[in-house]
Amino acid sequence: MEESGERISCSYRIEDILEVVKSEIASSKDKRSLPAVVLLLVDIDNLERINRWYGRSVGNEVLEATSKILKKVIGPKDLLVRFGGDEFLILLRDTTLKEAKEKARQILSAIKTHEFASHKIRISVSIGIAHYFSFAFSTDEFIGCVVEALTLAQKEVGTFKVFMEEEEWNEE
């Protein structure tokens, strides 16, 4: 996906993720089981400040580095797309909610300890997590769930929240 003429390296499009989700749902219905797919929506906290203070080229460096870190953390079957200006959507396949939370922890740690761009900037991300737990959901509703979870996570910056989890919302 392009922004301001820069290319952020994501190999897939949002349509690819939606097709995989539809396929996983159809396959799981045939098996009479819940699909083992989880969405993570990763938002770079305060990227607009980095763009204002250091310039858009540094902001683009942060986006590119974040993309590379996310690619290293996710598995080979997982999909990563740029979802918006400073957001990345990840589809984790054959993954439990517990495993997805561990991936989120790995992402938070990797981002927190990385020095970004030539200015050695430290950033944080907020992550929304949604697992497919009901056949009643469409792919659009599934995306809506992860967006809602991200909205909750952004209120605490640098953490993750799970949509409709039976346990407490805040996971450390």
Which structural category fits the helices and strands? alpha+beta
Query: Between the first and last Cα atoms, what is the distance in angstroms?
Result: 32 Å
Major sheet attributes: 6 strands, mixed
The total tally of domains equals 1
pLDDT average, as an integer? Answer: 85
Helical content, roughly? Answer: 40-55%
CATH superfamily descriptor: Reverse transcriptase/Diguanylate cyclase domain
CATH T-level fold name:
Alpha-Beta Plaits
Question: What CATH architecture do you see?
Answer: 2-Layer Sandwich
List the helices and strands and how they pair.
Layout: E1 2-3, E2 6-7, H1 14-31, E3 37-44, H2 47-54, H3 56-73, E4 79-84, E5 87-93, H4 97-113, E6 125-131, H5 139-154, E7 160-162, E8 170-171
Parallel strand pairs: 6-7
Antiparallel strand pairs: 1-2, 3-5, 3-6, 4-5, 7-8
Helix pairs in contact: 2-3, 3-4
Walk me through what this model shows:
This protein has helices at residues 14-31, 47-54, 56-73, 97-113, 139-154, and strands at 2-3, 6-7, 37-44, 79-84, 87-93, 125-131, 160-162, 170-171. With 172 residues, it is of the alpha+beta class. The chain has one domain: Reverse transcriptase/Diguanylate cyclase domain (Alpha-Beta Plaits, 2-Layer Sandwich). The longest helix has 18 residues, at 14-31. The chain starts with a strand and ends with a strand. Mean pLDDT is 85; it is low at 1-7 and 167-172.
Which tags fit this structure?
six-stranded mixed beta sheet; disordered C terminus; Alpha-Beta Plaits; alpha+beta; 5 helices; two-stranded antiparallel sheet
